[in-house]
Every structure is written in C-alpha cells, then in structure tokens.
C-alpha cells in the first residue's frame, strides 16, 4: 500500500472466489502490512477473505456477519469482541448491487441486511451507523474503515464514499485509496451508457482519536456549519456575478429566491442571512444605501 492506488488482478487462495462481491486477499495483505495491527475485526466478513489473510499473518482476527447471526445495526461489535481492536475494517454491500440475504445466503430476506435497504438514502444512513459501530470497537490511535463502491441508478450517480467522508469526523480521516475492480461482469446495457462503467472502489481509513462516539458530533458540527456558511457565501457571490458585479439588495433577494427556492424555504431568516454574508466577508462592499458590489 505504497501509493493510493490498489490493483490486484488475482484474488489469491483466501476466502471463496464464488462468493459474490468477494474482495482480493492481496488487498487485505497490503492493508495489514501497512497498518501492522495486532488485532483485527471484520464485521461483514462474507466468505472470510480478510480474516483468513489476517490469521495467516499472525494477526488475531474476528470475522462476523449477518449470515452467522451478527447484525451490525443491532449488536455492538465491541461487546461481542470484548475489547477494542487495532483495526476494524469492513466490506459492506454497495446498496443492492448484490443482494445477500435470501440470494447469496439463506432462504429469506433479512430486514437489516444492508443490501436490502429500501432506498439509497436509507442505505447511506445504515452504512453510517455501521461505521460508527466499527469506530466504537476501535482502540484510540487504531484504524477503522471500509471498502466501498459507488453506484449508478436510473441516471443518477451516488457516491457512498463521499457520503461517508462527509458524515464521519473530518479530523480522523487518514487515507483514501482507489482500488481497481477486476473481473467485473459487464452487461450489454452498460455499453450504451454515455458515462464510463465504474471500474473502481474506495478504501477509506480513519484513525480514531480518543473521544467517545457521541463527542464525535462536536467534531462534525463545526465542518458542517462551515460548509453551510460557505454555501451561502457562494450563492450570494454567484447572484452578484449574475447582476454584473453590483446589485440592490432587493434584486439579490429576488435572484436567490428564484434560483434557490428550497434553500430559501428552509430558512425563515434567509434575508438576514444574505445581509450577514454581505457584511461579514470581505467579498462585498456597500456602494449606496441597499446597493452592494463585489469587492475589488
Ligand atoms: C461485500 S460482502 C463481503 C465480502 C467479503 N469481503 C469477502 O471477500 O467475501 C458484504 C457482507 O455484508 C453482510 N451484511 C449485510 N448486512 C449486514 C448486517 N446488518 N450486519 C452484518 N453483516 C451484514 C452480508 O451478509 C455480506 O456477507
């Protein structure tokens, strides 16, 4: 794992090559060599690839999965394993790209199977909780992470890796790797797409800081607030640009109302917000009463 690209055409002897959505054992080998964990947990172990590699390398490893009675949305990984691990890394389903319960294993659909989440949004929420469960089971200074792919559905592109990065503590993000997907089955429908077929997935790694899962909200709230503030600033600047660099407040309100109705509808104080943006940042200067311009 010397670079941020991971590419292994072979999967090696570990796990089960017939398990749909299995990962190459060489990927895990690189991961363990880079991070050197003494203890490892994979809470969505599938056919067991990661755990087999880990044990071969002398790492104490625990593999859990819904197929054998562990449910990441209801059971605490930490409680089951008994002590926090150096590395808690999972390879979740990519929403319903491959459906597991009742298809790959078992006779019945399982309601908490991540691959059976009712919508992309529900999947993202459940995935978020799963990673928080992993985080709780990680030693401070240790790593938690996922191998996850993006998804194209009905003309839309959903980036679960971007979603996770946005939802987890920014100051814990340690590495993002692009993993090349080999042996992806093609289908004729894909060839007609205007956009490239997705041939990669991501390995995301966070390094846990010494604070509880619930303190994490403190670490996340600030970046989220900054992002929202930045969005307002960008919207007001763009409205000003559309008015040729200077505009009366009333015109800015109108443009924003027409251009961003949802954002405006969600904030009953949005006009005050616009005035605050104009006054607070050095981006704008007052020209006359109620008229503003982009600062030089
Ligand atoms: C992509 S597969 C893992 C493949 C594995 N890396 C391998 O090489 O075989 C994802 C796994 O997540 C499991 N899973 C789905 N929902 C789960 C849940 N709520 N709790 C635990 N495991 C779950 C599925 O049963 C499936 O085995």
From TrEMBL:
The alphabetical list of record keywords is:
Plasmid
Gene3D superfamilies in UniProt: Vaccinia Virus protein VP39 (3.40.50.150)
What domain of life does the native source organism fall in?
Answer: Bacteria
Mind telling me which InterPro entries this protein's record contains? Answer: SAM-dependent_MTases_sf
| Organism listed in the record | Oceanithermus profundus (strain DSM 14977 / NBRC 100410 / VKM B-2274 / 506)
Name the UniProt record assigns to this protein: DNA methylase
